[in-house]
Amino acid sequence: MTTNPKVAIIGECMIELSENKGQVARRFGGDTLNTAVYLSRLSAFSPYYVSALGDNDPFSQEMVDAWNSEGVDTSLIQRLPNYLPGLYYIDVDESGERSFFYWREQAAAKFWLDQDCSEDTLAQLMTMDWIYLSGISIAILSDESREKFFTWLAAFRANGGKVAFDNNYRPRLWQSKEHAQVAYRHMMGLCDLAILTFDDEQDLFGTDTPQTCIDNSHQSGVNEVVIKQGSNPCQISYPEHFLSVAAQKITNVVDTTAAGDSFSAGYLAGRLAGKDPQASAEIAHRVAGTVIQHRGAIIDQQFMPQIG
């Protein structure tokens, strides 16, 4: 893979509220933004983040300032009048498992493909080596915008670009399971690297085993498939190879909010730096294992592991 790549990560960042011992903390989070920040910390390049925010509110500007400080390139962020970022609240139980509550119906990020400036954004994205997105990235779009985006992704790949996709299925964002299934099947036919949470595949498609998930992905045309299984070994399949890579045992699980997002960042960082899938998965487990020992989606820089 390219060792000095141009990578754009597309999605939504929201205002995050979480409670700990009666104290509510405000941060920023979102699956793809979490991946962008961790990828920036782990890499020698600055990934672009592609989304939309408000143009006259303190939260949006704080987000942009924070992302810039993390080395994330914000030049493709749209600032939309009369819109605000979405908001979510995390409830974390005693075992570290979390539940989410969202306020996002009119979030700016839902409308990034509906603006006059969208064509310019897409033209700039066509110069990227890699596009990374998630199931949430496509779920928040209208049907019309999603089809427009799928058409653009096909053109991007025909132009030599590569696409990475994390399934991250959230049922409440879809009209129905059948509606989501159609979109996901279309998306899987447009990606080169799929990083899939097995639980999500079970929820969406009723997939019975990780191997079935791998087989279905390859049949869709995906070249490299990574199956995330939490604390269990991840499974990786690419032409003529199959790997099962164990995660280190973590006894101090505090908050699993960004476990999958940080895993994806670690795997991408390894692969984009020229490491093989085995080494990349080991990095991914190490990063995710560190993140879940701290509260919040994005942990303090001082706690980041050294990946070599």
Automatic annotation (TrEMBL):
The keyword Kinase applies. The keyword 4Fe-4S does not apply. InterPro entries: Carboh/pur_kinase_PfkB_CS, PfkB_Carbo_kinase, PfkB_dom, Ribokinase-like. Its EC number is 2.7.1.45. It is an enzyme of class 2 (transferase). It comes from the Bacteria. It catalyses: 2-dehydro-3-deoxy-D-gluconate + ATP = 2-dehydro-3-deoxy-6-phospho-D-gluconate + ADP + H(+). Pathway: Carbohydrate acid metabolism; 2-dehydro-3-deoxy-D-gluconate degradation; D-glyceraldehyde 3-phosphate and pyruvate from 2-dehydro-3-deoxy-D-gluconate: step 1/2. Keywords: ATP-binding, Carbohydrate metabolism, Kinase, Nucleotide-binding, Transferase. One of its GO terms (molecular function) is ATP binding. GO terms for cellular component: cytosol. One of its GO terms (biological process) is DNA damage response. Residues 6-300 form the Carbohydrate kinase PfkB domain. Belongs to the carbohydrate kinase PfkB family. Catalyzes the phosphorylation of 2-keto-3-deoxygluconate (KDG) to produce 2-keto-3-deoxy-6-phosphogluconate (KDPG). This is 2-dehydro-3-deoxygluconokinase. It comes from Alginatibacterium sediminis. The lineage of its organism: Bacteria, Pseudomonadati, Pseudomonadota, Gammaproteobacteria, Alteromonadales.
